[in-house]
Design brief:
By secondary structure, the chain is mostly helical. The chain is about 50% helix and about 0% strand. It contains 4 helices and no strands.
């Protein structure tokens, strides 16, 4: 996250403009708090929300959960 300007970082953006100003990727990044060895938290969030480049987003997540 150090490579991003401070005003572009999800935590700072949320604090300054509110959660409604965040994209789905940024909002998930705030919840995840950290990335992986292979990528920063924004890249990790993007992989979760848009696997294989498919359409998705937060509204898609409930569709991937198995119902009991």
């Amino acid at each position: 996250m150090k490579e991003l300007l401070e005003e572009e970082r999800p935590y700072e953006k949320c604090g300054r403009f509110g959660a409604k100003s965040l994209t789905d990727i940024e909002l998930l990044a705030v919840l995840l708090r950290s990335g992986t060895k292979g990528g920063n938290v924004l890249e990790t969030a993007k992989k979760i929300l848009y696997p294989s480049g498919r359409e998705g987003g937060l509204t898609r997540l409930h569709l991937t959960r198995k119902t009991r």
